TrEMBL record:
This is Dihydrofolate reductase. It comes from the Bacteria. InterPro entries: DHFR-like_dom_sf, RibDG_C. It comes from Kribbella turkmenica. Residues 113-168 form the Bacterial bifunctional deaminase-reductase C-terminal domain. Gene3D superfamilies: Dihydrofolate Reductase, subunit A.
């Protein structure tokens, strides 16, 4: 079995988006370097530093499925039916969209984080599952479903916005020492949850 990895690009003060769902300064590092890398969409290249490319190449290919919330799905229109990372997306929602124009896209709508992660893990097999930052991450961490945390730290302070762990109230969670990769305009911190 692979790992469940809570993953996002995060401001220094812990936000994955500002109060208007803006993310621009967080994603500067995706286009500030000479090395071209791809996730799942061959039409969406990133240009990053060598250090970030090596980190991405060691993590993204292992991801088979992604768990996201309905809010991110709506903001991105489900990336027009192409998963950002992995080959299948599980969207946590109480109400699936009725008129999404990509009915054959590899997206499954699931009611509840525990069921979404169970389905994502079954799909992933020995590959990894990512959970996007925000309330889903907090819920998954509180339920004991997160194995690793990929905290990609951008050099910006938002002051307020959408928190990486949402409204987490699950109590203290200890992490092992991080793997630290210094990119340009990002520091990749990869932690294992202590068991």
């Amino acid at each position: 079995m692979g790992n469940v990895i809570a993953s996002a690009v995060v401001s220094l003060d812990g936000f994955v988006a500002d109060t208007e769902d803006g993310v621009d300064p967080l994603f500067d590092w995706y286009n500030n370097g000479p090395v071209e890398v791809y996730a799942s969409d061959p039409g969406r290249p990133f240009h990053v530093s060598r250090a970030s490319a090596d980190y991405i190449d060691s993590t993204w290919p292992n991801v088979r499925s992604c768990v996201i919330g309905r809010r991110l799905f709506d903001l991105t229109n489900g990336w027009n039916g192409v998963p950002a990372v992995g080959d299948h997306v599980f969207v946590v929602t109480h109400e699936p969209p009725a008129d999404w124009p990509f009915p054959d896209a590899p997206f499954t709508f699931v009611d509840g984080i525990e069921e979404a992660i169970a389905q994502a893990k079954a799909h992933a097999g020995d590959g990894d599952v990512t959970v996007t930052g925000g309330n889903l991450t907090g819920q998954a961490l509180a339920a004991g479903l997160v194995d690793e945390i990929a905290y990609n730290l951008a050099p910006v302070v938002f002051g307020s916005g959408v928190r990486f762990f949402g409204e987490y109230t699950g109590g203290q969670v200890l992490l092992d020492d991080p793997q630290v990769v210094e990119g340009e305009r990002v520091t990749h911190l990869h932690y294992r949850v202590s068991r």
